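Person: Please comment on this record:
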Amino acid sequence: AFFFATIASIAFPGDTSAFLLILALGTAIPMLLGLVIVRQIPLPTTNSELGVERELHGRGEYHIPSSETTLFIGENGSRTPLLDPTSEHEQEVSNYHIPESLSAVGLLQDRSTSRGSRTSRRVSREKPTHDIYGRQLWLTPDFHLLFTIVSLLSGIGIMYINNVGSISKALYAKGNHNYDELEASQWQATQVSTLSVCNFAGRILIGLIADFTQNRLRLPRVYCLCLISALFIVSQVSAINVNEVANLWKATALLGFAYGSLMGICPAIVIDWFGLAHLSENWGYVLLSSSLGGNIFSLMFGHNLDAHTPNDDSDTHSPLSLAKRADLPSNHQCFDGRDCYVSSLYVTVVACLFALGLSVWAGMRDQRKTTEAQREVVWEADEWMPRWGYLRAQIHFTYCSHSYSFIRRALPVRLTWP
């Protein structure tokens, strides 16, 4: 938007039709070119050197703390597993393989367990993967919660983006008896440029903030919606207090940053909640909320703007009479400054507060579910520790046997096993 607005302001200053034509051609031509020249890149083939490791991971085997990553599984010799995997106790005790290094022994355990075990043991502490889509998605409470939050916040953002030109023009015309259409268009272009740059910055920075929130603060990414909702509130309050068009860029910058952050964080939340396999479908359903909220808030803003548009020119001191004297471009336009739209912004502030409350609730729900999921993957010490102790005894015995054999061959004096 910043690029196209700059071109239009230089090449066609004050010509809205030319600006829209540039937008149409500038966005359509790259898509048509991409349709011809873009080709799908095939995925890389599986490396044969990692065949054994990938086979183990494919069977659901997980690596327990170890400094060795190479597996040594052979038929005979020192690489042979301590416990025969073909024995009748295969599913009970033969799921562990010994790396070459004995100083840092790593264990690999199959996910499958015996039928006699009370519960299946999990080694990974990652949250279980989700694959929710289609009809199941629409029946999930989390989807409706996210749909409502995005509908409120994106609807407010779309309302402001669509009407920032009218806001700028109303502020510029307030008390200005020397209305200049070219200068008014320049103020509108300034808002568009500010909005696009901050929108871009918000999409980049929210990714860094979300990763910091999850990796350092150990909080779910959905808590970033609280920060975004707060930014929307600040932007709307700032727009309410703007009385001059020269100060409108502050509210525009805040809203652009908030709107870009919202569009940047929501796909990550969709992946966390519903899985990656059907991201395109699920994110498309969530984006339906933008059209719903955008239409509702835009209609509200337009209705309020029309209600403040003067339609009685009998009074020589009416705003319409002033508009005619000042050669303002249209009679069906409000030029009373912030009074033309401030009532709509009061409604959006309330909507942002409601979205903030829902964002806090969503974060608490996600954090509670994460805590419950971590409790499910805690190791069962009564089942694991006896086998770990038995395995340590086997390793110690093997190590002592090899050490005794080496000393016995090296020394001329014959040693006897105590």
